[in-house]
Amino acid sequence: MGAAALPILIFTGFWGVVGIVLPFILPKGPDRGVQQLVLMMTAATCYLFWLCCYMAQMNPLVGPKLNQHTILIMAREWGNLIQ
């Protein structure tokens, strides 16, 4: 299973708008620089968090741990009985 292009493009575009476009259209004010920094940092950290979570699903390091009884029941129910 590989990464699908559509979710990556959608989320990259969304966080790109939040971090690149929105800081330029903020209204003038005494704390405009702080608001711009907040938007850029929020976009960067949220995007990286989402990307790490998304990519962790491509090759999970932890799988289910089943005991032998459960595995035998699953094999019997799914029709590939182990003999």
From TrEMBL:
Membrane topology: Multi-pass membrane protein
Keywords, in A-Z order: Hydrogen ion transport, Ion transport, Membrane, Transmembrane, Transmembrane helix, Transport
Principal location: membrane
Listed InterPro entries: ATPase_V0-cplx_e1/e2_su, ATPase_V0-cplx_e1/e2_su_met
Subcellular location(s) per record: Endomembrane system; Membrane
Keyword Transcription regulation carried by entry: no
Segments crossing the lipid bilayer: 6-25, 37-57
GO molecular function: proton-transporting ATPase activity, rotational mechanism
GO cellular component: endomembrane system; plasma membrane proton-transporting V-type ATPase complex; proton-transporting V-type ATPase, V0 domain
Pfam families tied to this protein: ATP_synt_H
Family: Belongs to the V-ATPase e1/e2 subunit family.
Complex formation: V-ATPase is a heteromultimeric enzyme made up of two complexes: the ATP-hydrolytic V1 complex and the proton translocation V0 complex.
Function according to Swiss-Prot or TrEMBL: Subunit of the V0 complex of vacuolar(H+)-ATPase (V-ATPase), a multisubunit enzyme composed of a peripheral complex (V1) that hydrolyzes ATP and a membrane integral complex (V0) that translocates protons. V-ATPase is responsible for acidifying and maintaining the pH of intracellular compartments and in some cell types, is targeted to the plasma membrane, where it is responsible for acidifying the extracellular environment.
Protein name: V-type proton ATPase subunit
